[in-house]
Design goal:
Blueprint (H helix, E strand, L loop, with lengths): L5 H6 L8 E8 L2 E9 L9 H15 L7 E5 L3 H13 L3 E6 L4 H9 L3 E5 L5 H13 L4 E2 L7 H21 L7 E5 L4 H15 L8 E7 L30 E3 L1 H12 L7 H14 L8 E5 L23 E8 L2
Parallel strand pairs: 2-10, 3-4, 3-6, 4-5, 7-8, 7-10, 8-9
Antiparallel strand pairs: 1-2, 1-11
Helix pairs in contact: 2-3, 2-6, 3-4, 6-7, 8-9
């Protein structure tokens, strides 16, 4: 077994153990509470740091990644930023294939960390082409491709860190069991990780637990046709088992943006995908008995959305009457 570099071990101190929040919401006059992991505190400000460090560690241990190798990956942004920053610290050149229509901030951050960014237009093949090009490049000597959309370490990263952290928050606050988890499908690692962890947890306990995990996709899930960056890439990743999960929830752009704006107006920093996750969580919580625990993740902060419609002055009316009233830190 190969060893993990000491510098990579140090990075572990900057990934995970993020705050767990309890959002106070109002849905059509009814008070609801949503639990949420606030992921902006990770190394580069997103939940993707968890997956990135897990895959790099696994790559070193398996001998697939060696010092000085080039990391090459296809991404919609946050994963690329994670690998760009970690690669810069660890001495790995990084090459990123990315759809051209995503936010300016994402592109600038990757280039700022020293990554070589290759933008692919919709006409050139969009996200599918990005994945194909990264996979082709990875076959060359000296290249390592994380292949986040099919790498089981992506799922394990959340089954081993994010999900147990949420369970610990439930336990220390005497909140009982988790009933429902909601998360958008980007790579699918988060929702699948929570599904495996909490499903296995429930089977190991004597009492019945009807835990369910619902994936979220944009209502218009096509390349360049929606504004929920990082969620919905016009295909279902290989690590996602839709048959095991509960039915897909569809969220439109305006609802995601409106909820994200409300959360930001409380002083928290979140992006559009956080709004989509919370919107879906509120809809599900409204269908459950009072006292049920519904959780989601707030994947990243607002700094990567300054030139997007999240920060525009246009009105984005909600399809349902929802207000985000307040929040508290519970762990």
């Amino acid at each position: 077994m190969n060893t993990v570099p000491e510098k990579l071990k140090k990075l572990r101190n900057f990934v995970g153990n993020t705050p767990t929040l309890r959002l106070e919401c109002e849905f059509e006059g009814k008070k609801l509470y949503i639990l949420a992991k606030y992921e902006v505190g990770n190394f580069t400000g997103s939940i993707k740091d968890r997956m990135a460090i897990q895959i790099l560690e696994a790559g070193y241990i398996a001998g697939q990644l060696e010092p000085g190798n080039t990391i090459v990956e296809a991404t919609s942004g946050n994963t690329g930023i994670s690998f760009a920053a970690m690669g810069a610290y660890l001495g790995h050149p990084v090459q990123i294939y990315m759809p051209s229509w995503l936010s300016t901030e994402r592109k600038r951050l990757m280039r700022f960390y020293g990554a070589k960014l290759l933008e692919i237009t919709l006409k050139e093949g969009g996200f599918d082409k990005c994945i194909a090009l990264a996979a082709k490049k990875s076959k060359k000597n000296g290249y390592f491709c994380p292949k986040q959309f099919e790498n089981s370490w992506n799922v394990l990263a959340h089954a081993q860190t994010t999900a147990p952290e949420l369970e610990n928050a439930l336990r220390i606050n005497n909140l009982g069991e988790l009933d429902v988890f909601i998360a958008g499908i980007g790579t699918g690692g988060t929702v699948m990780g929570f599904f495996h962890y909490f499903s296995e947890l429930s089977t190991n306990k004597s009492e019945k637990n009807d835990f369910k995990a619902y994936p979220i996709l944009p209502r218009e899930n096509k390349d360049g046709k929606h504004r929920i960056e990082g969620t919905g890439d016009s295909f279902i990743p290989k690590i996602v088992d839709l048959q095991a999960l509960s039915p897909v929830l569809r969220v439109n752009d305006a609802d995601a943006i409106n909820i994200a704006r409300q959360i930001n107006n409380l002083g928290l920093s979140v992006g559009i995908s956080s709004g989509a996750n919370v919107f879906g969580a509120i809809l599900k919580a409204s269908e459950l008995p009072e006292g049920s625990n519904v959780a989601t993740v707030l994947p990243d902060g607002n700094k990567k959305y300054l030139t997007t419609d999240l920060c525009a002055k246009t009105e984005e009316p909600l399809s349902r009457e929802i207000k985000i009233l307040d929040y508290e830190l519970i762990s």
